[in-house]
Specification:
73% helix
């Protein structure tokens, strides 16, 4: 019904905390769940879950199993399966409730592209790996003019 970024933040955070507090097999499962939530958000023009995933998964607080490159080496198929199940469930619930997802306004898409540019700047290898899996229906990490412009701005400002 809107404002999914709050739910994505909560769900990713909950899964990442669960990953920290369990054995490595269950931790990988929880981190996979977190990444599938984050990717669902990206597919729907929200980077809030992705920001939470990177904020928690890239620090030394977690083991390597939460980093996208390590996780995807071992659990790429699981991320795809969980993403597909989540997408199907959301669509089913939307149908039950009579909710139709609308295309966001251009300003929101522009803001999303700026966020993607930031993550491509800050985590280039991880974004390349995640985007290369083609888990989502569309490539939201691609080189659109808005993303490229934002990325160039981040690179320029860092000099």
């Amino acid at each position: 019904m809107g404002a999914t970024h709050h739910a994505l933040h909560f769900l990713v955070k909950r899964s990442m905390i669960a990953a920290k507090t369990t054995d490595s097999k269950e931790a990988t499962k929880q981190a996979t769940t977190a990444l599938s939530y984050a990717l669902w958000g990206v597919e729907h023009y929200s980077t809030k879950g992705l920001s939470t995933y990177f904020a928690l998964g890239s620090g030394s607080f977690f083991g390597d199993y939460t980093k996208p490159d390590m996780l995807l080496q071992h659990a790429g198929v699981s991320v795809q399966q969980q993403y597909d199940a989540l997408s199907a469930w959301v669509e089913e619930e939307r149908e039950k409730l009579g909710i139709s997802a609308q295309q966001p306004p251009k300003a929101a898409i522009r803001d999303f592209a700026e966020s993607v540019a930031y993550y491509r700047y800050k985590y280039p290898e991880s974004i390349e790996l995640i985007g290369g899996l083609a888990i989502t229906e569309s490539d939201r990490f691609n080189n659109t003019p808005c993303v490229n412009e934002g990325l160039a701005g981040f690179i320029e400002s860092s000099r």
